[in-house]
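Worked Example 4.2. Read the sequence first, then its structure tokens.
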Amino acid sequence: MRLNKPALYAAATTATLALVLTACGGSAAGGSGGTWDKNATVNIGSLYEPQNLDNTAGGGQGVTEALNGNVYEGLFRLTDDGKVDKLLATDYTTSADGLTYTFTLRSGVKFHSGRELTSADVKYSLQKVLADDSQSARKSNLEVVKDIATPDAHTVKVTLSQRSISFVYNLSYVWIINSQAKNLKTSEDGTGPYTLGKWTRGSALSLNRFAGYWGDAAANKQVVFHYFKDATALNNALLTNAVDVVTSEQSPDALDQFKSNQSYKVNDGNSTTKLLLAFNDKAKPFTDVKVRQAVSAAIDDKKLLESVWGGYGKLIGSMVPPTDPWYEDLTKVNAHDVTKAKKLLAEAGYAKGFSFTLDTPNYDPHPTAATFIKAQLAKVGITVRINTITPDEWYTKVYKNHDFTATLQEHVNDRDLVWYGNPDFYWGYDNKQVTKWVAEAEEATTTARQTELLKKVNRQTAEDAASDWLYLYPQIVVASTKLSGYPLNGLNSQFYAYDIKKKD
């Protein structure tokens, strides 16, 4: 979700997770030919400034975009196609019962402070994710960790309370941090190809090439993330060469000016970001599945997508994007049908409709989507009161306190369908069979069995209209043709900068 708060982010608040290049040696997009400047500064335009620099303390989408893979690294890294590569771990073994993982750490890795990476730092980093005050996107997924042992400086032995087929995958979200580091909300001590330069709040954050990096050096000397309040200002910065690339275009109406200009390249990549109308399934009238189905059927998702994104983006009938292994096209399950919506409302005892408050984050596209939904639901007798709130207010009111009836929110992470197996998650969906399937899928011994079970979860949550999945965002990266090597996809909001080359 494109929350500017924690646990959902992989971000998140509330984490997807977003992974495109290999560690300073991957593939990407952009122009080719000509010589490139190894000492270039690459200026990156973004709408997502970090809340702070700690991804376990509500740093939000912005801290993932800027620091993940660039400043901090994990034992593993997710590739653009969702596979897991070894990074700071060179090897690992798993016990016969699937409960004990033994990891061998890469030698010669140093933190930006100069201290050498040891197993104690890995243990500390895992404990930081699992701490009581952690807002990590993967905290709940990693709570299967029972014990962390460090037999020697380059070995970490993790024992789980139960089998977890996603354990290594989830470790790719864990930043390895110097166990002696302090003030991580405003500073850093990672192992990545860049160190933190200067962060001017409300303006820019710079990263400098780390001379002591264990791998291939970054292809540029410096990257600067410039932060803007709206899409128009972001586009103007690109047009005036104040930035070289925009991480995620949010104004499709502005694309023609770039498409028709040979100085720019418009790239349409893959996204895992879903825009949800999330019901509080424990609050009336959304305790009734027929009401949720009626609301879903009353909203013309195709018309909404077209009005917000033009010809970009995809309709999605569930929480699962096409890039997840258990994807199935379920857009027909609760397809737009006003007659059906009215019939379901009558069957639920709301023939004359009802009213509810929609808590809406104050940044695009939520206000636009909220207004559209209000108009659509009025056609079936439902009155919507829009309550516009800040991201911080959303986190406290909706995510933390569950004090809402319905809300709009973006969920960024891939493979986040499993959150519907947790009745305590903010939307309160509680289907015992779904919870059982999710648990069984996580303890599966094969990926085929995991996929089979999660396809059942996918279909059941769609049939229950657990939420209304409005659409899947496009991932539009616009860049100067002087650039190459930049990420194309928006999986979990990461933006690896180390392979970006800039022509002289």
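Now turn to a second chain, presented in exactly the same format:
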Amino acid sequence: MNVRSRWLMISVGLGILLNPLNSSMVSVAIPRLQNAFQLDFRSVSWIIFSFYIASSIAQPIMGKVSDLFGRRKIFLTGLVVAFIASLLAPLSPNFGYLILFRIVQAIGTSMMVAVGMAIVRIHITEKQATALSVLSIFLSGAAAIGPFIGGIIIHWWGWSGIFFVNIPFVVVSFLLSLRNIPNDEPSTWVALGMSSRKWFRLIDVSGILLFTVGLVALLLGLLSAKSSEHISLGNVTVGLIGLVALGAFVRHELKATSPFIPLRTFAKYPAMTWVNVEFMLVNVLYYSLFFGLPSYLQMVRHVSEFQTGILMLSLGLCSLVTSPIAGRWIDKSGPRPALLVSAILMTLGSVWLVILNQTSPVVSVCFALAAFGISNGLNNVGMQAALFQSSPKEIIGVASGLFNTSRYLGTILSSLLIGIVMGGKFNFEGFQVLGIILTVIAFSLIFMSSRRRESGQLQES
């Protein structure tokens, strides 16, 4: 890889790491945000929901928009949007404005993730696999060490620091990108003689609106019902609106010519569908621990943000160390053994959470963190390999998009699970109930992994 390619990698890498970094740093900030805005746990959890819902919608849209306006322009615009959001979020007069700027930040950082891989694939022609693996390290590394960085920053500078820390990354990435990312070739729609108006019809606006309204209304209804002493007509109505909108979304997507989420693919390829279901459950488990444990440590065990960040580092380090080892193992043995071991480790980690008591040494949570960290490293490679085995080559792009959607849905469901179990206040009893639920989910993954069949599963269209 020549010098110019290396600088291109650094330019893109510094930009795309902002999305996973900002999604993970906030896990340590929940208690501080509760105190700052005088909110219960259910309300403050929208700082997580908003980011993942916005990211799940923005990334596929921005991938398509880049064909119209050019990947370089979308990447640079994303940096500007992220800069503005990171600058304004700490100045929010109330939590509503903070959520708004958090959504804007998610959109900006998603613009970079959506086109970053494509920029590298197009402009680095030698050792592409190496280049793409380096970008994966930027993404997974930022997510892994986010709680550690967040813990240190919040300890010394408060919750606003997790937004201001983006600014140097954005500025450096912008200056390097201006210099190192080449201009795009003429847009695809120009080459095909398409008007921009016709091109925009390829974006499923109706599907996106139904998905967003349905998901948000359902989350509001469920969380409001949990926080209320009795189920009110308003909570039921909001929840029903969500269900109706999601039902309409499913019906629309099955008929749409260019659907936001191609649901027909799930029905056509059941083996691929089960991989996505398994991946969604894996993310429910992982992110329930990822977002739940820092709140437990700070609210129940009264551990500082700094110490919480250090403890959470064991999760990220175990994941990073395991991933390359998992790659070599899965190349030789296929994904089944690795995913089975991963499910067993998550079960053991979940059981460990259940048997914790209020006098257990705080450092003992590292056993659960290590188990989940190793399993995450195995899953990062194993689930991707299982996807490739179960998906026909001609739809691998669609399959990858659905795979990312499953990741986001799992993350959103994990936050919903924590919110429902905990309600307005994070407490020890609720954390034990969460551990029991995670144990049941993890045990179901052992069953699914043990029944998995290897590469004879490849579907033919």
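Notes for the reader: The chain has 21 helices and no strands. The longest helix spans residues 270-300.
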